[in-house]
Amino acid sequence: MGIKERKEREKERRRQQIMVAAKRVFSDKGFSRATMEDIAKEAELSAGTIYLYFKNKDELCASLTLRILQYLQMRVEHVYNEKDLNIEGKVETLKEALYDVYEFDPLILRNMFHLHSSETFKNLSSELLEEINRLSRKSIRTIGLIFKDSLKDGLFENRNAMEIAYVVWAVFSGLALWEESRQTFAYEGNLKETLELAFEIIRRGLFNYAIDASSSPSDDADDNSEDE
Amino acid sequence: MGIKERKEREKERRRQQIMVAAKRVFSDKGFSRATMEDIAKEAELSAGTIYLYFKNKDELCASLTLRILQYLQMRVEHVYNEKDLNIEGKVETLKEALYDVYEFDPLILRNMFHLHSSETFKNLSSELLEEINRLSRKSIRTIGLIFKDSLKDGLFENRNAMEIAYVVWAVFSGLALWEESRQTFAYEGNLKETLELAFEIIRRGLFNYAIDASSSPSDDADDNSEDE
Amino acid sequence: MGIKERKEREKERRRQQIMVAAKRVFSDKGFSRATMEDIAKEAELSAGTIYLYFKNKDELCASLTLRILQYLQMRVEHVYNEKDLNIEGKVETLKEALYDVYEFDPLILRNMFHLHSSETFKNLSSELLEEINRLSRKSIRTIGLIFKDSLKDGLFENRNAMEIAYVVWAVFSGLALWEESRQTFAYEGNLKETLELAFEIIRRGLFNYAIDASSSPSDDADDNSEDE
Amino acid sequence: MGIKERKEREKERRRQQIMVAAKRVFSDKGFSRATMEDIAKEAELSAGTIYLYFKNKDELCASLTLRILQYLQMRVEHVYNEKDLNIEGKVETLKEALYDVYEFDPLILRNMFHLHSSETFKNLSSELLEEINRLSRKSIRTIGLIFKDSLKDGLFENRNAMEIAYVVWAVFSGLALWEESRQTFAYEGNLKETLELAFEIIRRGLFNYAIDASSSPSDDADDNSEDE
DNA sequence: GATGAATGAGTATTCATTCAT
DNA sequence: TATGAATGAATACTCATTCAT
Q1: What's the predicted TM-score (pTM) here?
Q2: Do A194 and B166 make contact, defined as CB atoms within 8 angstroms?
Q3: How does pLDDT run across A142-197, given as a tens digit for each residue?
Q4: CA-based radius of gyration for chain A
Q5: Which residues 6+ apart lie within 8 Å of D73 measured at CB?
Q6: N or C end of chain D: which has fewer CB within 10 A?
Q7: Chain A partners of B184 at a C-beta cutoff of 8 Å?
Q8: What is the CATH number of the domain that holds C33?
Q9: Is A119 in the same domain as A50?
């Protein structure tokens, strides 16, 4: 039905409106200190209205996480499907993708922290929770797939693709965190530029590691090069 | 006085006892969801007693952060003072130091997040806050000093030491975070081993970056190689 | 809007309902011993609801004080504006006015005591505090004005009007206090009647003082008959 | 026993020391906001020690009240026993006595307020409570006795002595209160001088009332001139 | 759908009081 | 006798959530 469809679209628009407001408020005050009233005010709605669109505060937070994970997966998958790029080009594109994800919502990691808090789970519908876990695993696996072809070519052969994916993800997380703690460490420099430096170091490390490893596998006695 | 001294020591022991309990509870539930009652129960004390040793909940949390920062600074300074190591050896030792810090208290980063939340400051005595900021800056600066000598030798010459320090710190943070989000990403592998891989990649990237950069400085047109 | 107006009136009614309950509970238990729960129960509301209408307990108490001061000022001003009365008549009317104020809310003085406690100020919005101070000064000044005309006529000429106003106010306060401590002093008599006696004494003293003073001003060597 | 006696005296000294400290702290912060810790610190003792001398906080407060009542009774009785004074002289001396009492402990009235709070009674030993009530009644009765002789002489004959005593007491209380609320009413004048004025007015009113009343007793139809 | 008034469960914090030393 | 560490009961205040309108 045209009417039903329009209603549905209207409803989705409201959800987005609330999520945008929530993102802003969480970003400002942190999850615990942000009140539903704050978010409602930011969204120019009443507090009660939010409950028409989200079951509770935790589920609103989880929805934010889900959205960013969807964006992450979309971008990462796009990198994987890029036919015309060699591994170096893919890693460069991956870097850009991750950076865009970070810029889209720098809160992603803080949100995830909140999610990890065991007591939060109780308030989440199991579907939402599962969808989040599914997407998390899927995107890390996709990052792994980006490196997997190189394993066949002999690059990185001493490590499995998933391990490398985790490292890349960890570094990405670290850069996000670094930005968060900038105040404490009183960093006054140019963020973007330092991010570039970090990724440059990682990228070179990755490939030089690959080269060293492939030319002298005996150097690493303790490697477990099995794929999972 | 023997008596006064013993009392002092007894008091310090209580503080430690409470901090250990708090660390455990914060670790479990997150800062906001952990109640003073929880912590008291964990410490086998009454809630009121905690207030004899810490002004409030925020100051208890900040004290945890301060403790880990003191340990961090101690370890990092030790690396810097190591006379018999070349830069490669120092980086290797730095890696071990950071890893030990992480194991000493994996909460460090989550605590810092909480601290960054602007509204927390109001509840902290300015001395504590300043000590935390002072130590944070000092340790990052010490990490920078570790690389500074190499700048004179021509290594890393296109970047200043502080930028490199920030990158190293970011990666360290990332590894910590990575551990935090392990549940979501359903990683079942060996943490220690993956940490080794990550640092190995960083280390190689660092030095290969150095070599490339020093041999062809013109590649980076936008570098600002001034030391701060 | 009719709707908006009705809502506004409804809101004001709730404030009054809470203040009436608070008056009763404060009266019964004293300010410190009265809990918000007590007041809520008396008002047949939940404790949280009170905070929708008053910022905190101190501000609720201050609002009670403000209300009685508004009534005091209104009554006192009315006495001052009475054209057809000579000074004797005005003092008689003033007596009645003050007595009505006392009956309207016998707590007035206890509330003011609580207000004077320096630490209370911090919890009060500055507007409320200023309004209270403004009204306090205004009503004492208005009482002074009632006597001022008599100063021109030669009555009370050795004292300024404000000093007399303070004395009248002190006696009024004393009568209120007297009622408060009735239990301790085990007075079983008729309050109203004794109040009449007290004011009668004051009134006669006032005028006889005036007469004596005006006829032999030299008796008081140390007078400072300047008006403020 | 000499030893026992010395111990007793030592104990009484401690009680006084604590009461002096309590008076100061109550005066400063009000009863509710003053903590036992505050009082202990002021008395240069530990909080626990206070409980060796006073059963609880309420009883400490009541003891202060008792002490001032003892002083009041002593002074008032002295006035009553003064053989060489006529009624005018006695009233003048009474004024001075009350003023001295007020200066000895301006808190007296605030303390009494606290005492009146019904819930306080539960924490008081019945002996203490009864002693306070006994003394309160006794001093007001003694003030009454001061006027009683004048009743025989025809002065004040339309009123009973107790009623006059209550009025005098009320004015005294009012003057004390007046000092307490000085801040709010922004009075900048000289307290002592205004006190003089107030008592002067009362005194004159009293005697002029007496004269009027004695010359035209029929004016007051509703008088109850019986002594209790 | 939208509101926002009302709720009530939850929590940090305080402080009189106790008691082992 | 004096201490002060420990307690636990009390309480102001907050805020997610509900529901009548």
Answers
A1: 0.86
A2: yes
A3: 999 998 888 877 777 666 788 888 888 877 777 777 776 666 666 666 666 777 78
A4: 21
A5: D135, D138, D139, D142
A6: N
A7: 112, 115-116, 132-133, 136
A8: 1.10.10.60
A9: no
